[in-house]
Task: structure prediction
Amino acid sequence: MAFDIDVIKRVYSEMSSKIERAKQVIGKPLTLSEKVLYSHLWNEEISSPYIRGGDYVDFGPDRVTCQDATAQMALLQFMQAGKQKVAVPTTVHCDHLILAQSGAKKDLQQANKVSSEVFDFLESTSKKYGIGFWKPGVGIIHQVVLENYAFPGGMMIGTDSHTVNAGGLGMVAIGVGGADAVDVMAGMPWELKFPKLIGVHLKGNLNGWSSAKDVILKVAGILTVKGGTGAIIEYFGEGAKSLSCTGKGTICNMGAEVGATTSIFGYDESMERYLNSTGRTDIVKAAEEIKHHLTADPEVYANPEKYFDQVIEINLDELSPHLNGPFTPDLATPVSEMKEKAAKEKWPLDVDWGLIGSCTNSSYEDLSRAASIASQAKKSKLKIKSKLGINPGSEQVRYTAERDGLIKIFEDLESKIFTNACGPCIGQWNREGEDNNKKNSIVHSFNRNFAKRKDGNPNTHAFVSSPEMVMAIALSGRLDFNPITDTLTNSENEEIKLEPPIGDELPKNGFSVEENGYVEPPEDGSGIEIKVKEDSQRLQLLEPFKPWDGENISNARLLIKAHGKCTTDHISMAGPWLRFRGHLDNISDNCLIGAVNAFNMKTNNVKNLVTGEYGPVPETQRFYKKNNISTIVVGDHNYGEGSSREHAAMEPRHLGVKAVIVKSFARIHETNLKKQGMLALTFDNENDYDKIEEDDLFNFVDLTKFSKGEQLSLEIVHSNGSKEMIKLNHTFNTQQIEWFKNGSALNLIKSNE
Ligand code: MIC
Ligand code: SF4
Result:
């Protein structure tokens, strides 16, 4: 039986009438995205359609999901909200805090030792507030959610940007910061700017070496890392129906890499098969009655241009396998063009590691397709050239794959089977015996490949591909190997051509698992006491941020002008820093240390404008805070791209930065900044970025009139005394301005208690 089936049945029983009402107002056929959004409105009375990309709308999501690295901050904030229990079904998954090193068993033991304080905190807080808890090592949040909680037509938010993975099962699932999750957990509406809609028409069928991953690698090449910003991507067409449910999950998962709010597929037989095989026949039955609402109206897919803001067409018959990277997931190269491109770009051709796993590609089907390539090695006497690491997506996948002999195939290649967890994907990887500055290439089936993300080495060139392609490249040890045309030489000097991958969409004998690792919360957890040690290095109770003093900000200094790409990995690095995710002051020591200072092109090296000396960003900012000097941060396009981690917003706020001014923001980060009471602003004229000099002073002259839809003015005083006034835009609505005034959204919740 499915978890929370009563919630799902309630959603379904109300869906038809809600959609009919919305249709009357909108007056035309609806996309699936609109059906799900309009059936999850907080206030159901609407008199006119919402403006896509314009109106802020309150929604009532059906569920919340959190992972260990973000749940700590989410729960620390929830504890302040003064509630007894979560208002909607919520789960916490421990997957980010396990270092991959020796292999699953040892690594898990070690993680349980090193992070017991955090795991205990998460488990007891979950019990206290009625939250379902998934123990360390039992799976990656998004795989576990797809297997257990996602349902077609539902709406979910999660404190992780790849929450969007559940779109593979027809859900509007959106990544958010912890403060947003707290709203929903506390029974309040959740606000989102009504998204624009991008339709992707998939024609034809995948064949040969092409996989679902290549669909999104191709889309990433088309849209780039910011092309999906503020939009839901809805996939449809015969090609969409031909993909497996977990393949659809892969595509939706990496929608995060193009900045999309989320991605979605309409309910179809692949989803039915997946629900049945994961023990949720009750959802299939319930969905049967409203099936027509779990996909778009037929007119929409017949004439997509009329209903979507943008339409992309991809013919799966012609789709070729891709490798995306290095350093950005949208640098798409067809495998067939890699020889030329890698040589031209001087990318290291030897591949040191192949890594299979991550929430993107760790399903049973993924493992079985990769195993079909791996098994050819033994048969054809091929030796694997790269090292290989595997992170299965969940204990259920791992157990079943072991039962079916798949794990053995990888083990025969001397690969490391790591825990069912994020591992190397988030820099939780001890690449033993490696020089951590060496220029090298790795290929993986993960979704992100920003510099330093995997192993902290800025010279690791990481490429994203499908699990089967990773496997083939790992066998060859070459970045420019194309299994479609090239051969490999075996131990008997024979030329071997690999057969294209084959795999099982779902295990033939069904899924099975001994210990799924789920801890059900008690009915009444109110007696449970949450303890955080005073001197803990891992956890720290939160102090409310100070409200705005009502004055214009004057004589502010520039902490850093970030050059180029500045993702949340640059602002609040993961890897070793993950251990401080529950301790705001400690983690603030990584604030912006990965951002490149536009004035000297160095990282973590900025000028202290009082002493004139250059030093690390966090230290310099702590100096300003101590001396009551206001500061601002300036950035380029798509600032805060990547993850949902709100630490990237809380750290500068905690350290006293007053405003972040950039050319453009990534959606989740912009909201996170606003939630924490930070001024998140954009240049009206993006060339004004060039006007900002290292020694400038900044005066906000009309902050006292801060209001919705009105620009703000910033006076820049250059060191030679000359002044210029520039205009800044913002997207704060009236409510969000209250967050700023109160010091944070949480302060406002508390004051309303
Ligand atoms: C990531 O892939 O970057 C993460 C780690 O899963 C993050 C969340 C986090 O920073 O904890 C995400 O994608 O939101
Ligand atoms: Fe974990 Fe990587 Fe997925 Fe983030 S992208 S949830 S780190 S597996």
